[in-house]
Amino acid sequence: MPARIQPTARQVRVGTELRKLREAAGLTSREAARLLGTNPAQMSQIEAGNAGVSKERVRRLAVQYACADKELVDALVEMAADRTRGWWEEYRDVLPPEFLDLAELEYHARFMQVIATAHVPGLLQTEEYARAVFGYWVPPLPSSELELWVAYRMRRQEVLSREPAVPYEAVLHESVLRTRVADRRVARAQLDALLCQSERPNVSVRIVPFDVDGFAGASSSLVYAGGRVPTLDTVQRDTPYGSAFLDASAQLLVMRTLFRKVESASLDPSRSREFIHRLLKEM
Fold first, then answer.
1. Distance in angstroms (rounded) separating the CA atoms of residues 122 and 115
2. Which of 68, 184, 208, 219 has the most other CB atoms within 10 Å of its CB?
3. pLDDT at 59
């Protein structure tokens, strides 16, 4: 199987989890390669996500690694065998790879939990709001490229309306609602859109008001995507230089705890809708 030129985050994850299982079994990559009937270089390529691995090989390795977690093994087999070329592949070599990785993560997520303290989450943005956000980039995007990025973001939102729709819970700080990325008209349309989205049975929108005491989570923005098993959960966080994808068990525990802390400071969905209605009347 030829080496991948640019593996996706999902492909890299399969290799990462196989490496974790090998290390937990106390085996070197050379020993694992011998068990698999291959060479250490190929084993390194598999664990780096640069080479695919068949579902049969995944199960053989799981047995050799004495992995008793059947659900995890089944999930890894499913990931390794997945040859899905999603709609995002149309944008490969056009948009940054992390954009495509995020769309793939959302597509496969069993649930999503989001904290937003700067902008409305991408899956809840209106087209005009997204255009204003991308239009603020430095250096500015050419108009044709800007429209491509906006169209891509709009297409990502299909994950909320497909069947079965992914459960999606977003916790937004009040500053997100009050910041006008464009003008008053765009701000009002975005609030209206949030109300409409919050009425979906799979979507929950919660607000953290300014006047909540003890909230120091202003830098807590994240996307927590649930995998088929908790071990395969993934967190995406924006950085000044792109997206970071976190999947270490300790990192996931921290992010789950962080989400619960921020969620506990928020209004329940019903009161959050009332809150958004009040803001609309103020504009």
1. 12
2. 208
3. 96
Give the CA distances from residue 18 to residues 23, 31, 61, 191, 272, in Å, rounded to whole numbers and listed in that order: 9, 14, 8, 44, 42
Tell me which H or E stretch contains 114: strand 111-116
What lies within 8 Å, CB to CB, of 235 at 6+ separation is 222, 223, 224, 225, 245, 246, 247, 251, 252, 255
Helix axes 127-135, 143-156, angle to 10 degrees: 130
Residues whose CB is less than 8 angstroms from the CB of residue 43 and which lie 6 or more positions away in sequence, other chains included: 29, 30, 32, 33, 36
pLDDT (tens digit, 9 = 90+) per residue, 27-44? 999 999 998 899 999 999
Pair 236, 243: CB distance under 8 Å = yes
Amino acid (one-letter) located at 199: E
CA count, 13 A, side-chain hemisphere, 203: 20
The pTM (predicted TM-score) of the whole model is: 0.93
Could you tell me the pLDDT band of residue 129, with boundaries at 50, 70 and 90? very high
Whole-angstrom Cα distance, residue 42 to residue 179? 51
Residue 32's pLDDT is: 93
Looking at every residue in the chain, the average pLDDT score rounds to 94
